[in-house]
Amino acid sequence: MENSEKTVLVVEDERAIVEILKFNLKREGYAVQEALDGEAGLELARSGDPDLILLDVMLPKMNGFDICKTLREEGSVTPIIMLTAREEEPDKIFGLEVGADDYITKPFSMRELLARVKANIRRRALTYAENPAGRVLRAGALALDPATFAVTKNGAAVELTQKEYDLLHSLMREPGKVFTREDLMTKVWNYDYFGDMRTVDVTVRRLREKIEDDPGKPAYILTRRGVGYYFAEG
Ligand code: CA
Asked: Cα(124)–Cα(126) distance, rounded to whole angstroms?
């Protein structure tokens, strides 16, 4: 099966949700790892080398935000989809701020969840396919190598999450071109229907903190007020 090489780690304390996720993911051909509390989830995320993590927020022992933040601080770039409760609106944005790639609200449609799992796992392969020559993109002190997904500044590695990388790549390959938030949502997140444009702003902010000398006065990723964002022309 097409997904048979891919492993999804499910970190969720509600046994019934774990079972239904496991059943559906396995039917799609994924291998599934499970953890029923936060500490076990973090441990398995480190040792199990999953291709994607489905991460509940409210968990015993350690919550999903802390797990996500810890993994990103350790340099992990594994795609993470947070599972948030619908009534906890601010949680969506907070999840992105601590480095999640995506979120899905409970109760979720299984079809939508599976589509997002697939899109988040495939994104890297797609990114490479779009630029098979692997031309290294350079601007000032910054370099992005699509063949290895490596981003460096003054030769030092910059650790980016998948969405941060995809966003930077999208902007950097067409310097000067202004992208609307909707453009970036479609290009980077792959969902026309996934309409919260703050997702783009939060990811731009995180990216600026990692690549700009002064994130308050960006020199690489610039804002076109009322329109969107663009990469500085050389
Ligand atoms: Ca829970």
From this structure: 5
